[in-house]
Amino acid sequence: MSTVGYDYTLTRTLDAPVDKVWAAWTIAEHYGTWASAEEVVFDVRPGGAWSSVMVIPGGTRVPLSGGYTEVVENKRLVMSMNVPGRDEPVLMAVDLTDDGERTQIRLSQTLDTAEDRDQAEQGSNFLLDGLAAHLATA
Fold first, then answer.
1. What is the pTM of this model?
2. Residues in domain Activator of Hsp90 ATPase homologue 1/2-like C-terminal (predicted)?
3. DSSP characters for 43-63?
C-alpha cells in the first residue's frame, strides 16, 4: 500500500475460526449473503478477478469489480477495486490472525482524500458488521 494518502485500519475479533472467516471472504455464495451483494463472481488467486453488485440500503445497486494482488490462504487477501474516474484501482488488505475459535480481522486501505477515506471506512465498517452477524448465525 502507498505511504502517501489517507489511511484507515479497522480491527475486530470475530467469534469464528479463521477458516470460516476466510471462506466468508473467498466463496462467492458466502460473500453474497453477508455483504449484501448479488451476481458475485470470484477467482481468488493472484491475478484473478472479482465482480459483484452491492445492494445498499434503500435498494440502490452498485456494480463493483477488481482483482486479487495477494492471496495467502487463511491469512491475507489484498484486493483491488476499480473506481470510476480513477486511473489506478484502490487496494484493500484483509489480514486474519488465527486465535483458535476466534479470528482477529484487520482491514486497511490508503486513499487519496480524507473524504474518500471516510467513505471507504464507513463501507468497511458496514461490511464487518454484516460479516460478524453472518458468522454468529453460521
1. 0.90
2. 15-135
3. --STT-EEEEEEE-TTS-EEE
